[in-house]
Fold this sequence. Notes:
The complex is a heterodimer of chains A (169) and B (168). Chain A is of the alpha+beta class. Chain A has 2 domains: 1-29; 31-166, Yope Regulator, Chain: A. Chain A has helices spanning 2-26, 32-43, 100-113, 142-159, 161-166, and strands spanning 49-52, 57-63, 74-80, 84-93, 118-122, 127-135. In chain A, β3 (74-80) and β4 (84-93) form a beta hairpin. The termini of chain A are far apart. Chain B has a single domain (26-166), classed as Yope Regulator, Chain: A (2-Layer Sandwich), CATH 3.30.1460.10. Helices cover 43% and strands 26% of the residues of chain B. The A-B interface holds A 84, 86, 100-101, 104-105, 107-108, 111-112, 115-118, 120-122, 131, 133-135, 137, 139-141, 144-145, 148-149, 152 and B 83, 85, 99-100, 103-104, 106-107, 110-111, 114-120, 122, 131-132, 134, 136-137, 139-140, 143-144, 147-148, 151.
Amino acid sequence: MALKRGICLFLxxxxxxxxxxxxxxxxxxHFDSSRxxxxxxQEADLEFSFQSNETIDAFVVNYKLSNATALKEVPVRAxxxxxxxxxxxxxxxxPDNSDMLKLYEDLxxxxxxxxxxxxxxxxxxxxxxxxxxxxxxADADFGAMVERYMYITALTVDDHYEELAALRN
Amino acid sequence: xxKWLCMLCCAVLTVCAFACASAEELSSATAVKAYxxxxxxxxxxxxxxxxxxxxxxxMIAYDSxxxxxxxxxxxxxxxxxxxxxxxxxxCEVPESADPLKVYEQxxxxxxxxxLGRWLYNEEEGYVYYTQExxxxxxxxxxxxxxxxxxxxxxxxxSFYGRFTSAIQ
Lengths: 169, 168
């Protein structure tokens, strides 16, 4: 009986250890900047996915806003480089680009009415996306800064979704 | 009656005195003012633009070398409760300029120049840089604000010529 309990306890501990290792392996960051972001997201207990290549570490958080006005969930990416992070919600709408001056004026009005983020027209893909950037400052709450800008970006996209959707017309 | 009136006046004055004593400079402004001298900007200017009794609009002036038609590039930091806004004037847009060209340039800047937002005030005919900075921690806030201020000046310095010629 005691042996059984011991084996169970051992297996449970091994399971915990292996899952902890798996999480640590998943987030193998290239830079101090991205390590700080990973550490903060884990500390804040936010669910995120992580991708990486030679020059960039990317984090994705799907924000489910409690005070959402239009969207149930907003996927926000943070592309983290050595010296900064670009926070982004891409491909928000495919606008009507038959009158470019009108499209730019509408985007300008939108940008004038928001703070922290900017809405940009991507002519190559005919999409509008939203971006904000955070410079990397070592030992200065960079992870928290990036997360706050991710949250603000999600909030702004949700708050202005009707205006963004109107760009399609 | 007189006695009650006096007591009422005293009470009002006491409340006013407490209110004045408890009013403090915004922590965002204090943080920026504390940080700037550590990076060589002892000579910033600060002014009270909203009339609250505190100098919470801070400005540093970079030497422009005349690239923008003046001697300096002025970068402002407007401090608020829990945030700040960095602003720098880029250039005037002549009435004859094609607005589509201006907007195309603005969109290019917003796409390719990171760490800031570019806006076109079509009514008053000028283009400017602006970026809001969120206050996560007072200790580190100044460093972030300065990073944006420095970048704003660098962008105005580097892209003034390209922008003004592109919109002509």
